[in-house]
Each structure stands twice: as C-alpha cells, then as structure tokens.
C-alpha cells in the first residue's frame, strides 16, 4: 500500500524538477514534436489536394463514333419559277383600235391578231408611192436611149476628127476644120456624161420611190398587231376605240411551256453545278418536276455573292405558274460524308469551321470539315476519315492537345 504513494511522490518530484530547472529544454522538445506533427498533416493534405486536382483537371466530354456513308451530294437551292418568255406587245404607230379586245388568260398562237388599228389615209399614201415608183421606172428607157445616142455621137465625132487630122497633115483640110472636129468630140463626151447623170438620177428616183412604197406598206402592216409567239395573255388587249400611239401597250404575253426554275447557288458550291446536269424541283404545291440546267451565271451578284442558275422543265399542261416558290436539287457527283449533329460544329482560333475529335490516349484534335448538306436530322460533313470519334458535347470547352475523359454515345441517340 505504501508503494503507490512513494511512486507518485517520485513522479511529482521529477515533474517539478523539469518544470523548474529544465524548463527550456522541455519547451524546445514540445515545439519540435508539434512541428513534426504539423508537417505530417500538411504533407498529407497536399497529397490529397494534388490527387483531387489531378482527378478534377481531366475534362469529361460526350463522344460519338461516326462512320462515313455514301450520299448523293446534290446541291439544294431555293428559287422560283419564271416564264420562259414574257413580252409587252406595243403599238408602233398612231391610230384608234377597231378590234374587240381579247381577255387575259386567252391562249394565242404565233401570228394571231391582238389589236387591229384604223388605217385612215394610209392606203392612199401607199397608192401614191406606187404611182411615183411607176413614173420613175418609166423614165429609165428614155435615159438609156439618151446615153446610147450620146455614145453614137461620140463615135461619129471621133471618126470625123481622125479624118480631119489626116487631111490636115497632107494639106487637104484646113486647120479650122481640124479644130472644129476636136470640139465636136469634146461636146460628144460631155453629152455622154450628161446622159449617164440622167440615168443615175432615174435610178435614184426609182430607189426613192421603192423605199416610199416599202415605208407605206410597213405603216399599213403596223395596223395589225400580232402575237410574236405562242402563249397566254397576261392582260386584256387594248379596248375598242382607244387611241394607240407609238409605245402604247396592246397586250402582255407569257410563254409557260417550257418554263424556267431559277435559283441562286453560293460561291462555295458553284463548281459542283454544271450546265446540262439533271435537276429536280418541288413546288410549294407539292408538284415535283424534272429538267436540266440550261444556264449558270459567270458573274456573281455583288450583294449576295451568289450565281444565278436556271433549270428548264417541260410544262405541257401548264400546271406550273410563273412566280411559284420551288426547292431545287441539282445532281452532282456522289461523295462519302459523316452525318453529325449541327451542334458538334465549332471554330478554331483561326475561325476555321470543323469538329473536335478524340484520338489515341484520349487526346483532343481539331479536324476542318466542309458542310455538304443540311438536313433536319443533322448535317453531312466531308473532311473526316472513314471512322472518327467526334466530340458532340463539351467540344467548346477543350482545346487541341488536351486529354479528356470520354463518355460514348450511340449515333442514334
């Protein structure tokens, strides 16, 4: 029983001794122990934080494995129908309308009369022009006879002149006679020139009279305004009794068979369109037609940077009207492409369009692509390999060269 109090007394004495005489050493020992413990705790926390940061720095993304498929890379455009021809038939002369009007919607063929005008005094003017022409033509024989007479006189004068010169050389004729015969030759030559001038005047009179007859006949022909081609009247013809002047509208005609479907192709796809290529169009009414490309503009619109393209289709029953909205599909060479969600598209730092893929080691790469077709279920892209692992969620939060943690998704999801 006495042993316990004795041990207690010894421990108390030692403790008092340390506190009083060895206090500095005791405090240093206590501080060193505390520092060692704190370092161990700090190292443990640092290791834990590093592990957490490493785990949290790997970005999680959703990846879709895509395989290339063969598609018909048709060029899809929006456009409208346009009449193959549309002409405003106008008057070329001044007169009043004598014919009953034809109503719009009437089918006409080439040469059908649209407007008939009052001839007035034009038939009398034509008869006068013909009379002047006949008179001019009647003067031609007289002018020819005068020219022939002048030529005969010149020949006679030359013969007399030659004889007078020979007689004068031998002394059998006087110098006066020789000079007289030379004057007769000169006079005959002047007579020929006069006769030729008269002949030319007669010919000019005939040509002028002929032109006057043609002008009078043309003026009479203008009194009947005819349809230049087969088509439909888009407006009523001029009303009976109305005054027509040069430039006045008689009627508007449009030709709808065949008909054109006009669209505008962007400059990125203009090289995929060729003249003569097969094309189809679906109208807003649901009617589907086929034709071929007959025109592709060589000059771009300065505002939209697009090129006009025309597709000509048959319209024998006139079911297609002018100005209808249409969706145009122009055939082009087939190509392999990937169908991906439109949201998978992104831009790199250079502004280039593309997608981000996951390669070996889950490292992100950027692949430039080209949009071939846009559909309600996704976009068709070219530029990717046959099989590609494309990031479809989270691609805007990673950059090329980083490591990611992919979550795979089926293409049908």
TrEMBL record:
<comment type="similarity">
    <text>Belongs to the membrane fusion protein (MFP) (TC 8.A.1) family.</text>
</comment>
<dbReference type="InterPro" id="IPR006143">
    <property type="entry name" value="RND_pump_MFP"/>
</dbReference>
<feature type="domain" description="CusB-like beta-barrel">
    <location>
        <begin position="264"/>
        <end position="332"/>
    </location>
</feature>
<feature type="coiled-coil region">
    <location>
        <begin position="199"/>
        <end position="226"/>
    </location>
</feature>
<keyword id="KW-0175">Coiled coil</keyword>
<protein>
    <submittedName>
        <fullName>Efflux RND transporter periplasmic adaptor subunit</fullName>
    </submittedName>
</protein>
<dbReference type="InterPro" id="IPR058792">
    <property type="entry name" value="Beta-barrel_RND_2"/>
</dbReference>
<feature type="coiled-coil region">
    <location>
        <begin position="126"/>
        <end position="167"/>
    </location>
</feature>
<dbReference type="Pfam" id="PF25954">
    <property type="entry name" value="Beta-barrel_RND_2"/>
</dbReference>
């Amino acid at each position: 029983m006495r042993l316990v109090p004795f041990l207690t007394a010894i421990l108390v004495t030692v403790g008092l001794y340390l506190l009083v005489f060895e206090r500095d050493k005791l405090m240093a020992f206590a501080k060193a122990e505390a520092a060692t413990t704190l370092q161990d705790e700090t190292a443990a926390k640092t290791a834990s934080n590093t592990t957490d940061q490493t785990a949290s720095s790997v970005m999680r993304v959703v990846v879709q494995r895509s395989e290339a498929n063969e598609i018909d890379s048709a060029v899809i455009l929006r456009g409208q129908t346009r009449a193959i021809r549309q002409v405003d038939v106008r008057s070329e002369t001044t007169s009043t309308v004598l014919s009953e009007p034809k109503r719009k919607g009437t089918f006409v063929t080439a040469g059908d009369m649209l407007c008939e005008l009052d001839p007035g005094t034009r038939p009398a003017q034509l008869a006068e022009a013909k009379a002047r022409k006949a008179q001019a033509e009647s003067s031609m024989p007289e002018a020819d006879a005068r020219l022939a007479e002048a030529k005969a006189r010149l020949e006679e004068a030359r013969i007399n002149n030659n004889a007078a010169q020979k007689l004068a050389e031998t002394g059998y004729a006087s110098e006066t006679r020789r000079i007289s015969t030379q004057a007769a030759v000169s006079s005959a030559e002047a007579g020929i020139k006069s006769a030729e001038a008269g002949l030319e005047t007669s010919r000019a009179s005939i040509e002028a009279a002929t032109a006057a007859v043609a002008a009078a006949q043309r003026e009479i022909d203008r009194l009947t305004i005819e349809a230049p081609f087969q088509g439909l009247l888009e407006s009523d013809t001029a009303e009976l009794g109305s005054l027509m002047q040069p430039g006045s509208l008689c009627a508007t005609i449009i030709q709808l068979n065949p008909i054109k479907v006009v669209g505008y192709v962007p400059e990125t796809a203009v090289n995929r369109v060729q003249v003569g290529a097969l094309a189809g169009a679906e109208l807003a009414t649901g009617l589907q037609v086929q034709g071929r490309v007959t025109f592709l503009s060589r000059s771009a619109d300065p505002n939209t940077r697009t090129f006009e393209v025309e597709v000509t289709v048959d319209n024998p029953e006139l079911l297609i009207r002018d100005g209808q909205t249409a969706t145009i599909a122009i055939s082009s060479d087939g190509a392999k492409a990937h169908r991906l969600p439109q949201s998978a598209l992104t831009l790199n730092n250079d502004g280039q369009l593309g997608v981000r893929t996951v390669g070996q080691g889950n490292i992100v790469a950027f692949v430039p692509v080209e949009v071939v077709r846009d559909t309600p279920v996704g976009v068709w892209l070219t530029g990717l390999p046959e099989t590609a692992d494309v990031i479809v969620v989270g691609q805007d939060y990673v950059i090329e060269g980083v490591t990611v943690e992919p979550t795979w998704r089926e293409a049908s999801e």
